[in-house]
Design goal:
By secondary structure, this protein is mainly beta. The protein is about 0% helix and about 65% strand. The strands form 7 sheets. It has a 22-stranded antiparallel beta barrel. The protein has a 4-stranded mixed β-sheet with strand order 5-4-7-6, with no helix packed on it. The longest helix has 4 residues, at about 1-5.
Length: about 600
């Protein structure tokens, strides 16, 4: 997913969970992840989101994300999955690349009945991939979907996703002084046999019904279970004062989560005189339970300048964390999008949420209550001074339960946020080029971030602010010639805290970042179907932790691609990091600095039937 999101302004990879998933920041803050508008908790998204069944990725920035429920004002990432097709379809793909990367995908779809009212889709993927750091992971993924058109106005969709992922725990490099340790970027300071095993199952049922031309209902439920086990993981724990002796940390245990979410939306489009309305009324009910049995302790010491293999010794004693957190939430929301005319629209909305998240310590039997409630308003205004130009302004407040776990097992308080946004959108060059410019300011309280002392846990700090400007441009300048460009200036800092200095920049977020990608495909003649693309991705210097104790340098990465798409055949060769730049992709505390891969090549062949 990080390759797809590199072209979106203000979106950066923030964490990989020790080489086990992908978390992103939007406008300086960790984003909420959704699948088909259903909220995914941070825990059940630890495992990589597989792209096999993904149709597209929606990045909704700013207050617009409030429509998706309990979301932060910085924005959300919504993964939209593939739907069943009305005609028979089959596709088989295979990818092979550097460092023994192998991946096979199968995509099947079509009707199950003669009238086409019942259709299916099945996506399957198997991946066996090594990395430049010597870690090998395996993933099995399958996602069946059934879609039943019960009647002309009613549709029922049932979808299952299951992922089994096994890979070593690898937090990359670590800081020495105010920079990255001067060691080879491919040096692994973790046990390659220390695997994390994750199993994720998501089941979704969605009912859509149209009562009348202007009245529709969308009612859905989603169940998610996530089981994670790690018999013994070793990683960087603490660098000793001599700046070469690394004290290793050892973790072992398991975690299990279950979540159930129900969402019900009613959309009514009345007309009062010359004014059109789009009224949205919704109810949301969720329950999330997380149990854990974790052990943590410091192990032996290794010399960081001594190449591996290393000796990994389990510690004689460890801290034990055993408990259950159960989060119950309820939300009700009402919004009216008022169209006074074709060039003037006003959005008024509000949402009321309650949340309860008691923690039970299974060792002592103690119960720590945690409750919160809030009303979150939203106001938006859109004005079109010309048919191809739109000006907009938004104000939004948010309230969201905080996911994650502290080292003491204490649940976190809900997060509150306030966002302001001004901007303009324009269709240029006879609608061949689309541009979006936005200025924003966000303030958040009770922000949850990674615990610098223990990466599998989190801490909750005071207040943080982010402000900046973003520009995105995309379009087809000439037939077959496409361009995508982005730029973001993001000033994200601590505004109040009792631990870290006020004014410190937030980790992972550069002041400046941008991208440019262009591709051309020949549309006719003897070379029809052939194409090529190239792009550059630029990320500025980033601070690595809330204490701003170290920084990682900015980088420029160049990619290129050659491809052939014609008829039933789709073939491509991708050249990633073409100039072999040495760079850090993400960093959020001193013992978790993730280096980017050097020059790699991947070839893909897909045949459709």
């Amino acid at each position: 997913m990080r390759d797809a999101l590199r072209n979106v302004s203000g979106v950066y990879l923030s964490d990989t969970g020790g080489n086990f998933g992908e978390q992103f920041n939007i406008r300086g803050f960790r984003s909420n992840n959704y699948t088909n508008a259903f909220l995914s908790s941070i825990v059940d998204s630890f495992v990589f989101v597989d792209s096999a069944n993904i149709e597209r990725i929606d990045v909704l920035k700013g207050p617009s994300s409030v429509l998706f429920g309990r979301a932060e004002p910085s924005g959300i990432i919504n993964y939209v999955t593939k739907r069943p097709l009305p005609t028979p379809y089959a596709a088989v793909g295979f990818t092979a690349g550097s460092y023994d990367f192998y991946r096979t995908t199968v995509d099947l779809s079509g009707p199950l009945t003669s009238d086409g009212n019942l259709a299916y889709r099945l996506n399957v993927a198997y991946e066996d991939a090594n990395s430049f750091r010597g870690t090998q992971g395996r993933r099995v993924f399958f996602a069946p979907v059934l879609e039943w058109k019960v009647g002309p106005e009613t549709k029922l969709t049932f979808e299952v996703e299951h992922t089994r992922d096994n890979r070593p725990f690898d937090q990359g490099l670590f800081a020495v002084g105010n920079g990255v340790a001067p060691v080879p970027y491919n040096r692994l300071f973790a046990d390659p046999k220390g695997l994390i095993s994750g199993n994720v199952t998501r089941v979704t049922a969605l009912l859509e019904h149209r009562f009348a031309e202007n009245l529709t209902m969308r009612s859905g439920g989603r169940y998610t279970s996530y089981l994670e086990s790690y018999p013994s993981l070793f990683s960087a724990g603490e660098l000793l004062p001599d700046n070469r002796s690394l004290l290793l940390a050892n973790q072992r245990g398991y975690g299990y989560t279950e979540s159930v979410t129900f969402q019900n939306d009613l959309i009514w489009k009345p007309r009062t005189g010359s004014i059109d309305h789009t009224v949205l009324f919704g109810l949301e009910l969720g329950k999330f339970a997380q149990s854990f049995d974790a052990f943590f302790g410091f192990a032996n010491v290794i010399d960081i300048y001594q190449p591996p293999p290393y000796v990994f010794e389990s510690p004689p004693g460890s801290s034990v964390f055993v408990g259950i957190i159960t989060t119950s939430s309820f939300g009700v929301y009402l919004q009216d999008q008022i169209s006074f005319s074709d060039n003037l629209k006003l959005v008024l909305g509000g949402r009321y949420d309650t949340v309860s998240a008691p923690f039970t310590d299974l060792q002592t039997g103690d119960v720590s209550p945690s409750e919160g409630q809030a009303f979150s308003p939203r106001v938006g205004l859109l004005y079109k001074p010309a048919s191809n130009v739109s000006l907009f302004a938004n104000f939004n407040q948010s309230f969201a339960p905080s996911s994650g776990l502290s080292t003491t097992g204490t649940p976190f308080l809900p997060t509150r946020g306030t966002g302001f946004e001004l901007g303009a959108k324009a269709d240029l060059l006879a609608n061949r080029l689309f541009a979006n410019l936005a200025l924003f300011k966000i303030a958040k309280t009770n922000v949850v971030t990674a615990d610098p002392a223990n990466p599998r846990f989190s801490i909750q700090v005071g207040e943080q602010e982010s402000q900046g400007v973003e520009l995105d441009v995309s379009g087809e300048l000439l037939p077959g010639w496409n361009v995508v460009a982005s730029y973001a200036y993001t000033d994200a800092r601590i505004s109040r805290d009792n631990t870290f200095p006020v004014g410190n920049r937030l980790p992972t977020t550069p002041l400046h970042g941008g991208s440019f990608w262009t591709a051309y495909r020949i549309g006719e003649g003897a070379l029809e179907g052939w194409g090529a693309g190239a792009g550059v991705f630029m990320v500025g210097e980033r601070l690595g932790d809330l204490d701003n104790s170290y920084s990682v340098p900015g980088y420029t990465r160049v990619d290129a691609a050659l491809y052939y798409r014609r008829g039933s055949l789709n073939a491509a060769i991708n050249f990633k990091n073409l100039l072999n730049a040495q760079y850090i992709e993400a960093a959020n505390f001193r013992t978790a600095i993730y280096p980017g891969a050097p020059f790699t090549v991947q070839g893909t062949l897909e045949v459709r039937f």
